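ERR on first pass: missing label on line 2. Operator R.T. fixed the label and resubmitted. Corrected input:
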Amino acid sequence: MLRLIWKNAWRSRRRTVLTILSVAVSLFLLSTMLCYLSSGEQQLESAGASLRVVTRHQTSLTFFLPEAYTAKIAAVPHVTVVQGCVWWGGQIKGKEMSLFMSTIAADLEPTEKMWDDYRFEPGVLDKMRGELRGAVIARRALERAREQEGWEIGKTVTMTSPIFKHDIELLLLGTCEGPDESIVLFRRDYLEKVRGNPGQIGYFWARVDKAENIPGVCRDVDAMFANSESETKTETEKAFMQSFMSMMGNIEDLVRNIGLAVVAMILMVAANTMAMVARERTTEHAVMRCLGFTRGRIAVLFISESVLISLLGAAVGVGGAVLLYRPGKFDAGGMAPFFHMTPSTTATGLLVALGVGLVAGAAPAIAAARRSVVDGLRRVD
Amino acid sequence: MSDALAEVTGVTKDYKRDKQSIRVLEALSLTIPRGDFLALMGPSGSGKTTLLNLLAGIDQPTSGKITVDGKTITGLGEGALAKWRSRTTGFIFQLYNLIPVLTAYENVELPLLLTSLSRAERRQHVMQALDIVGLSDRSKHFPRQLSGGQEQRVAIARAIVVDPVLLLADEPTGDLDAKSADEVLTLLQRLNREFRKTIVMVTHDPKAAARATRILHLEKGQLVETAA
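pass 2 clean. output:
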């Protein structure tokens, strides 16, 4: 029976190859979208285990907070270290759309304690202490920038910001490795000097001693600044990243909807193919029924063929995505650090293919099985 | 007749086309003895193929009863009928109806895939059937690589591979040249005489009908017997 299914599937080679390619391209697109969605989820997941909390202006991330809050937050029970930061944005001057880098101006001293999930090149933070324009860059970000712009450690680069009107010149002193593969960290006092407007903080990172104390710290910090000129909103790193991502618009929903459209498209292509196949084999199905094949067996043979074609498409499309989007091998340009095929995204792609095969084959299979033998035999191809 | 293989008793068959009901067979009764080679003749629309389909269990009469090899097949469910067909009948079509992507061997093997026979046993049956029709040397050929006559012989091998008691042939020579038609008819005669297969053959061709042991004419759904 398997041989019959295989041979039937390849009866019209060109049509089968085209259908497989259509399914493959669609599943590759779907896998890419799933990778994007999963990348965001993994980012949030990795942030979920963090002991860091973020304090920002209650109104919006675009409002500044006074630098004086640093000491006040540090005095809250269970807070071990506080770091003031400003989101710079970070684009290469003259090539604003070419590379994305999370460029952040931060207080230097708390860096090592605050970011213990990052490995800094030995001595790089010491070098930054002696160089106002000094910056540390994520190893992957440097690799990308080296490839596109010829960046190297020791080189001075000019960066521009989508938020601030000033340009900054950074001296690359070394690299770091951590969850955010697009990070560029430089000294906040340098930014203050460039802007000439000291004492303003975009947001504070605070590290809490234990996970169970995080809700209390968030509550205490916000209570401390309640009814002040600059009220705060303190939240976990995960919640902060979620709100930060939502600033980019509802891209996830958009991607999800495009994914559904892609699935519908594959379904239509596969269903069209199987409907044509069923029409062409009307007499043949009737003959098989004469030989003793039951309606159910005809339907199973037909659906199996549809599933086979769909799974061959998945082997090409999802398999291609697995090969291309390997962890550490594929670079999504810094926007999505966890952009790779996970076992779950691979399984989703395969399940979609299986579902498409079943659904696309079901309607023509049922119609073929229900047609009377006499009607089938009467039909002349 | 005590050794009847098939008995058709008072069978009426109506077809519905749009809102009209067309009577194709009317209160038809017929006994087919075991080992008979019966030719059914008659003008188009006389009900020959309908009667053949009813005997094969691929259509149900509007009323009446059909018994084949001791089993009443009227009223049987689809699953039971399919099972019964796979063991009891062999069907030969005018246009051969072989599966084009399967070799002659694989086409003949097809009905055996519904049995519990092992691969080796299936092989033995298939080669025996192909040997009977004189095509054991063409087992690896695809239908497109065979002549019309050879294709029909493969179709006959497929029909006899399960060793059915009843062979039903619908215009088996209708699409063949005279020489091939003669070969096919000789083969059917051999199956009837040597292997004691009961054969019911629908044909328009008097020469083909003359090879049968009995000829029946159908006219307007009624039987008119003629001596062979």
